[in-house]
Design a protein that fits this description.
The complex is a heterodimer. Chain A is an all-beta fold. Chain A has strands spanning about 5, 10-15, 20-25, 35-40, 45-50, 55, 60-65, 70-75, 85-90, 95-100, 100-105. By secondary structure, chain B is mainly β. Chain B has no helices and eleven strands. Chain B has strands at about 5, 10, 20-25, 35-40, 45-50, 60, 70-75, 80-85, 95-100, 110, 115-120. In chain B, strand 9 (about 95-100) and strand 10 (about 110) form a beta hairpin. Chain B is globular and about 40 Å long. Classes of the chains: A mainly beta, B mainly beta. Chains A and B meet through strand 5 and strand 10 of A and strand 5 and strand 10 of B.
Chain lengths: ~110, ~120
């Protein structure tokens, strides 16, 4: 199985900040990487697919990059609605696997 | 509007069975792969199972943790997906989501709201 390692597991930031979340795959996955946002009690919301492509309706404040084993999600100009948990997921091979999540909290 | 609505969750004893449903609307059901993904309370996301589309003969994949106990199926006439869960264990306690895979690619674009399964005596 491909292991997905996210860091940090949590971070504190202020409104207006830019934050960076990283995701590392245990083996190369090309660009078969998705990012999700999840708020408490809600379903995950797809943000990014193919490592860097925004899902329809997702604001450009979210950006993704990377290929192979190392990936990054950047969230610029944090707003109150952005405080949530973020997950990466590889869909290169079965079983699909998720990172452990990064919780973005208000400082 | 694409919608996925899960149902069928509840409290079941260890060793018991439960069948979850995912009712799809707003799209041609048979064109898409669909996954079940679960989330244990306070934990991360775990992929459970996939059923491919009609063009791929509705073939199936399972996570090792559920293989042999869970069965994914579909009823095209009802635009519905199912997850039959047998020999349930306490570690199967989770919210179960169904999620659509976008046509021609392999990533999710729509998720349902989830249904909670609690396995406890």
């Amino acid at each position: 199985d491909i292991q997905m390692t996210q860091s940090p597991s949590s971070l504190s930031a202020s409104v207006g900040d830019t934050v960076t979340i990283t995701c590392r795959a245990s083996q190369g996955i090309s660009n078969s990487l998705a990012w999700f946002q999840q708020k408490p009690g809600k379903a995950p919301k797809p943000l990014i697919y193919a490592a860097s492509s925004l899902q329809s309706g997702v604001p450009s404040k979210f950006s993704g990059s990377g290929s192979g084993t190392d990936f990054t999600l950047i969230i610029s100009s944090l707003q109150p609605e952005d405080f949530a948990t973020y997950y990466c997921q590889q869909y290169q091979s079965y079983p699909l696997t998720f990172g452990g999540g990064t919780t973005v909290e208000i400082k | 509007e694409v919608q996925l609505v899960e149902s069928g969750g509840g409290l079941v004893q260890p060793g018991g069975s439960l069948r979850l449903s995912c009712a799809a609307s707003g799209f041609t059901f048979s064109d898409h792969y669909i996954d079940w993904v679960r989330q244990a309370p306070g934990k991360g996301l775990e992929w459970v199972s996939r059923i491919r589309n009609k063009a791929n003969s509705y073939t199936k994949e399972y996570a090792a943790s559920v293989k042999g106990r869970f069965t994914i199926s579909t009823d095209e006439s009802k635009n519905s997906l199912y997850l039959q869960m047998n020999s349930l264990q306490t570690e199967d306690t989770a919210v179960y989501y169904c999620a659509r895979i976008i046509s021609g690619a392999y990533y999710h674009d729509y998720w349902g709201q989830g249904t909670l399964v609690t396995v406890s005596s």
